[in-house]
Design a protein that fits this description.
Layout: E1 6-11, H1 15-30, E2 34-35, E3 44-49, H2 54-73, E4 78-82, H3 83-89, H4 91-96, E5 102-104, H5 112-120, E6 125-127, E7 147-151, E8 153-154, H6 165-169, E9 173-174, H7 177-189, E10 194-198, H8 222-229, E11 237-241, H9 250-258, E12 265-267, H10 275-281, H11 287-300, E13 305-312, H12 319-332, E14 336-341, H13 359-381, E15 388-397, E16 400-407, E17 413-417, H14 420-423, E18 427-435, E19 439-444
Parallel strand pairs: 1-2, 1-3, 3-4, 4-5, 5-6, 7-10, 10-11, 12-13, 13-14, 17-19
Antiparallel strand pairs: 8-9, 15-16, 15-18, 16-17, 18-19
This protein binds S-adenosyl-L-homocysteine (SAH), iron/sulfur cluster (SF4) and FE3-S4 cluster (F3S).
Iron/sulfur cluster binds near residues 156, 160, 163, 165 and 244.
């Protein structure tokens, strides 16, 4: 193999995709490829795609169009579409963009080398059949040297009526506690300080693994996993996402309260504050249950940050039902909320319902919700004023080279003056002097 071949990966979508891209980058490097800063100078261009909403999917087609054009003058260019659009569209993508060499679903990410070799042998390849995800033998090329993602469960067995994820990510597959701990130990040895454990529905962890306890419970729950990995040498902070209100347990909150490395931050999407809409979404809980979960969290971990996702303009959502979402947000006061207007997705039940709302209604509701979110986040930030917070320094402030930035244990972005060379990867006690809705500024306290 020649050594000067270059690859570029553009990643869309969620943390799962980012983690998959890091593993695929590792495979490219193993194969002797070099990283190219721009897709336009790469010999292999890979788009790792997202289809959660229509605008995410459309973005991919516009990027792809440019490279397909480039291929007309550079026939040796190899074009790959990976990720969730690849899984959703499969062969249809080849008809839409005949210049494509490889279409590969998310379950095939670890097979990239094998698939590329088929392409280099002259084939056009589509890999979207469901498979058992082979335990990761590659070394990811991680973007950060300080924080890392570790998958604990792939896929999702829920059937929320708006969501493509189960179609494109397949059935749940948990990694074993041993494999997860081994990956974390390696990260600890390499100097990583913070690890985020990932799953679409992390509370489902373990239910597909063999074995059960004498009382009939699964042998491995996510809470058990936290107890199994919380003390990996070198790893100072552990985060996890995403929690599902339907399966969320009090034991998990207790573990978080008890284990010093597990950070005081819960990301628990509620999607809607209205019981009828929650039912139509097939979420399997009520807003009352959601509120009880938050009460429990605030009982055991009073200062915990709470974030969530919400959708406005779900089919049939009335103004009064939307106001129930506003009310929930007003009552709980989230530290952060990811909001989105409902987008009908292919292959999902809700997309076929006749009660679709107009774009005007959806964007009006989105704006009103976002306004409230910013106001509540600013209120939540107030509690940091004057406090000393532990910051893990990750990088320079891109807007002010005299400052470094990092996060509190509760995940608030924080800036303070200092040099990155000395501070990167260290935990610094910082007195918070300025608070904004979604970030803080402070001055370091010398210990
Ligand atoms: N597994 C997580 C979320 C995965 S998708 C969970 O169960 O909450 C990330 C977020 O995208 C979802 O929480 C939801 O708020 C949003 N989302 C998913 N499908 C959507 C759609 N069709 N339209 C708008 N937002 C959507
Ligand atoms: Fe989608 Fe629901 Fe699964 Fe989350 S739990 S990934 S929203 S189907
Ligand atoms: Fe998007 Fe796939 Fe993640 S659809 S949000 S990249 S699971």
């Amino acid at each position: 193999m020649t050594v000067d071949r270059r690859y570029h990966i553009t990643t869309f979508g969620c943390q799962m995709n980012k983690a998959d891209s890091e593993r695929m980058a590792g495979i490219f490097e193993d194969m002797g490829f070099l990283w190219s800063e721009t897709p336009d100078e790469a010999d292999v261009v890979l788009y790792n795609t997202c289809t959660i909403r229509d605008n995410a999917e459309q973005k991919v087609y516009s990027y792809l169009g440019r490279q397909a054009k480039r291929k007309q003058s550079e026939p040796n260019l190899t074009l790959v579409v990976a990720g969730c659009v690849a899984q959703q569209e499969g062969e249809a993508l080849l008809r839409r963009v005949p210049e494509l060499d490889l279409v590969m679903g998310p379950q095939h990410a670890n097979r990239l080398q094998d698939l590329l070799e088929q392409v280099f042998a002259g084939n056009q390849v589509v890999a979207t059949e469901p498979i058992h995800i082979v335990e990761d033998i590659t070394k990811p090329r991680r973007d950060s040297k300080i924080t890392a993602w570790v998958n604990v469960i792939y896929g999702c067995n829920e059937r929320c009526t708006y969501c493509v994820v189960p179609n494109v990510r397949g059935l749940e597959q948990s990694r074993t506690p041993e494999a997860i701990r081994a990956e974390m130990e390696e990260l600890g040895r390499q100097g990583y300080k913070e690890i985020t454990l990932l799953g679409q529905n992390i509370d489902a962890y373990g239910r597909d693994l063999p074995g059960s306890k004498p009382d009939g419970r699964h042998l491995h729950t996510f809470t058990d996993l936290l107890y199994h990995v919380h003390d990996v040498p070198g790893v100072e902070r552990i985060r996890f996402a995403t929690s599902h209100p339907r399966y969320f347990t009090e034991r998990l909150i207790q573990a978080c309260a008890e284990l010093p490395t597990v950070c005081e931050h819960f990301h628990i999407p509620f999607q809607s504050g209205d019981n009828e809409i929650l039912k139509a979404m097939r979420r399997g809980y009520t807003h009352e249950r959601y509120r009880r979960i938050i009460d429990k969290i605030r009982h055991y971990v009073p200062d915990a940050a709470i974030s969530a996702d919400a959708i406005v303009g779900f089919p049939g959502e009335t103004e009064a039902q939307f106001e129930n979402t506003l009310k929930l947000v007003d009552d709980i006061g989230f530290d952060q909320l990811n909001t989105a207007a409902y987008s009908p997705r292919p292959g999902t039940p809700a997309a076929l319902w006749e009660s679709q709302l107009s774009e005007e209604v959806k964007s009006d509701r989105l704006q009103r919700l976002n306004h409230l979110v910013a106001q509540k986040a600013a209120e939540r930030s107030q509690r940091y004023a004057g406090r000393i917070e532990q910051i893990l320094v990750e990088d320079q402030n891109p807007k002010n080279p005299k400052q470094v930035m990092g996060r509190t244990r509760s995940n608030r972005l924080t800036f303070f003056e200092g040099g990155l060379a000395v501070l990167k990867g260290t935990l610094v006690d910082v007195e918070i002097t300025e608070v904004r809705a979604f970030s803080l500024t402070g001055i370091p306290k010398s210990n």
